Every structure is written in C-alpha cells, then in structure tokens.
Amino acid sequence: MAQIVGGFVAPHNPVMYFNPKGATQEQSDLCYGAYAEMAKRIAELEADSAIVIGCDHYILFGTECLPPYVISTGEIEGPVDQLPGLKRKPLKSHGALGEHIAKVGRETGFDWTVGRALNVDHSVAVPHHLMLEPTGKDIPIVAVMLACGVDPYLPMKRAWDLGEHIAEAVASFPSDERVVVIGSGGISHHVGDERMGEVNPEFDKKVLDIVTRGDKAAMLGLTDEEILRDGGNGAMEIRTYACAMAATRAAGGRVIAYEPVPGWVTGMGFAELEVAA
Amino acid sequence: MSRNVLEKVLYDLSTSGANKKKFAEDPDKYLSRYQLGAEERALITGYKVRELADMGVNTMLTWGFWLQAGKSNGDYLKLMKREEA
User: Fold this and answer.
1) What is the mean pLDDT of residues A196-210?
2) A149 in contact with B at a CB cutoff of 8 Å?
3) Are residues B53 and A193, on separate chains, in Cβ contact within 8 Å?
4) A273 occurs within a structural domain
5) Which among A83, A239, A246, B46 has the fewest CB atoms less than 10 Å away?
6) CB neighbour list of residue A15: distance below 8 Å, 6 or more residues apart
7) Average confidence score pLDDT of chain A
8) CB-CB: which of A63, A64, A191 is closest to B59?
9) Beta partners for residue A45, in sequence order
C-alpha cells in the first residue's frame, strides 16, 4: 500500500514573484535556499507523489458556493492568479489517489467537495513550482484546498481530522508509492487590511515550535481570535499546517528556515515534518 | 446592507476580465444586475474600500478591487488606516 514518507510546511507568498526586491538579498537567498532544501529532501525521500494542501484566496470559489474542503480527483490547472514567472498551465495530477481519498472520505464521514477538473491558485502552484519542479521528477499531485481565507473558516480541529483521514486513506491506496504532504501557507501576514506589512516573529516562532514539537493540543488550542490578533487574517492559513501535521501523525520535525520579511508582508517559516512509524 | 452581494460584486470583478471591462465602461449599468441599494452601489463606484471592509467585506476582495482599477497600493493603505489618500 502507499505510504506517507515526509511532510513539509512552507509559505506560498505571491509577493516574492511580483515584488522580489521587497526583500533584501540575504532574506531572499534564505527563503529560496529553504525551498531548494525542501526540494532536495523530497528527492531524497524518493517521493512518487505529493498532496499539496492549500487554500482559496477568494479567487477560486465565490459567494455562490464556498466549500470547506476540496480535493482534486482529475485534471489540475493553475495558478488562476498568474504571477511573473509563474504562468497558468496544466499541473500533473494524481487523480486516482485523489479519488481514492474522496471515496474513503465518503465512507468515513468526510464529504469532500471534489474538483474533477480543478483550478488552483498560487497556494498550490507556488510549492509546486519551488518544491516539486526542482526535483526534476514531474511528481504528480493531489490538490487539497481548505477554507482558510474566506469565512466560514474550516475549524482547526476539522483540519486536523482531515489530515488524519488523509493518512488513513493513503495507507489503503493500492500502490507502493511514496507520498509527501505539503502544508502550504504563510504564518503572520495581513492581506488587504490596515495592518498589511506587519509581521510578528513571536507568533511565527510559537507556531513553528508547535509544528516541530508535533503538539496537537497546542495547535488545536490556537483560537481564531488569537490567530487573527497576533498573526493576521493571512495566518488563518496555518490550518494547512494542522492538516499536514495530522497526515504525518504529528511526529514533530525541524525548522529549515525562518525569516520575518515585512517587504514580502509575511513571516516566512519553513519546516520539515517527521513521519511517525 | 448585504455584505454577501457586495462580496459577490467584488468577486465577479476580480475574477473576470469581461466583467471588469463592463464595469469600467458603465458602472451603473453593470451594477444594475445585482441586488444592491443606492448606498451600496455608491460604495462600489466610489471605491470606498474602508467602508466596505467596515461592513465585513473580505479584505482580500477590497484590496483586489482597488488594485484591479490601477490604483496604488500606498493610497489603499492610507484609506485602510483612515488617513487621507
């Protein structure tokens, strides 16, 4: 059966693309170096496929229908919000794995909204670009989109439960392939509000500490009020971290890099997740 | 006041070039398709992003709405901080 062999959390910051000079050269080198290290680790883990857990930025799903969690079961294309150097294109999809997870979910209490020809935004396309493409292996992906940017937000507990469900579903997928999961999101950042540009290293380090200790109770203890106050509306994306932590069975991990980059409006944190045996 | 329809307008404008073009050509005609009152229409045609955000409109949308019109990020932040733009 398939197995999850590694996990990562990383930002998907579009500002890196449209305002690269917003960061100092040292900050930029550190961040791009972290992405390169994660790509190297994905290659070393001999990953055959990846589950990229992203989130809509109110550009995929409109007021007509706001799904709490979505999974790709067929073709994937993106990003719909093209960026300099990151144009919209088909992304190699692992439809069979996505369909299997969705099917297991329907049988076990997770009624996935499915994207049979899913468009994704930069939250999937950036990690694909910077973490998967550099491996040179054309790794197929399953895209998962959590409601992190538009209310009603997916509760943190539900994001965690979803990660555990993903782990169980992958373990019953009839294949010997090796799967990595990527929780894609920024830590502190404010999108479009009056605090845009503020970052909070204290909050960022608290989150990274929780992630690398595999501390489920502390992760679920982060209330929306605290996240919005200390991390900003963009930090609601750490639901993707909770999902990735649970998918790797919260075995802890290590910080690869951290840098607060006000010029990129985000606390940029990168970590690798261990996988429980 | 309905933040739902206001968000729908801003979402439609941020995700469709055709809608942006129609809005730019004739804002009142474009907005007539939506269930909006005169005060709500004025918030949109006047790019009152601070007031829209105060009504609960998602700031991802207000920011995108402002930028798609070619307006500056600096002016947006001034408005959001209740400074003069």
Assistant:
1) 97
2) yes
3) yes
4) no
5) B46
6) A22, A263, A264, A265, A266
7) 97
8) A191
9) none
How many domains, in total, are found in chain A?
A: 1
A58 touches B at CB < 8 Å: yes
The CATH number of the domain holding residue A97 is 3.40.830.10
Calculate mean pLDDT across residues B22-42. 96
Q: What is the pLDDT of residue B45?
A: 96
Q: Could you report the per-residue pLDDT of A208-224, keeping only the tens digit for each?
A: 999 999 999 999 999 99
What domains can you pick out in chain B, each with its CATH number?
A: 3-80 (1.10.700.10)
User: Which 3-state string (H, E, C) describes chain A?
Assistant: CCEEEEEEEECCCCHHHHCHHHCCHHHHHHHHHHHHHHHHHHHHCCCCEEEEEEECCCCCCCCCCCCCEEEEEEEEEECCCCECCECCEEECECHHHHHHHHHHHHHHCCCCEEEEEEECCHHHHHHHHHHHHHHCCCCCEEEEEECCCCCCCCCHHHHHHHHHHHHHHHHCCCCCCEEEEEEECCCCCCCCCCCCCCCCHHHHHHHHHHHHHCCHHHHHHCCHHHHHHHHCHHHHHHHHHHHHHHHCCCCCEEEEEEEEEHHHCEEEEEEEECCCC
Domain annotation covers residue A232: yes
